[in-house]
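Message: A physicist's question: would you kindly supply an amino acid chain plus fold tokens?
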Amino acid sequence: MQKAKVLIADDHEVVISGIKSVLNKFPEFEVVGEAFNGRDAVRLVNFLHVDIVIMDISMPGLNGIDATLQIKKKNPEIRVVIFTMYSDKEYLLDLIKAGISAYVLKEDPVSDLIMALNAVKSGGTYFSTLSPQMLLDHIKQMSRDDATTGFQDLSLREREVLQLLAEGNSVKDIASKLNISPKTVESHKYNLMAKVGVHNIADLTKIAIKRKLTTL
């Protein structure tokens, strides 16, 4: 039996420990790494030869949605299982566009997570508690919302800058975290403001919270 190599990305150590304890009972899965934020998850998949990432949504520095976008852009074959406490669907279109293979709530039975992992290991998908019609309805609504806000036009880098600004980082701090110049950060800031139609950090923060890029 060929094992599927799993990376767990969650900013709560107790969650990671719990998942590892469960997966130790299933020889078809091997936990090869853990990350406490999205940026570490993106970095680790590149040299751990990961097959599946179990990804939380709300994480500091780089959230699970944007981490998934970055992972799938470079490694489209990697399957991402979203494992989250959020049951609302406001961010569902982003997750679908990012290329997730499964979506499981942390309040669901642990058997749902195992079913999701088995499904994606075989090339399938698994969406806990979401019927196909619910998915379709929310995707249509989010598509309409994105068309009016300009959010869908943000680049991956602009989304990173948006989250870091919303979390209270200065332009200088963001430049250091992303290894770019402060001038480039300023350019991204004003570009993303223009795209979403706001003029200050407070309104950017509201957008980041609404889109679950941050939970501040």
About this structure: The mean pLDDT is 87. The first helix runs from residue 13 to 23.
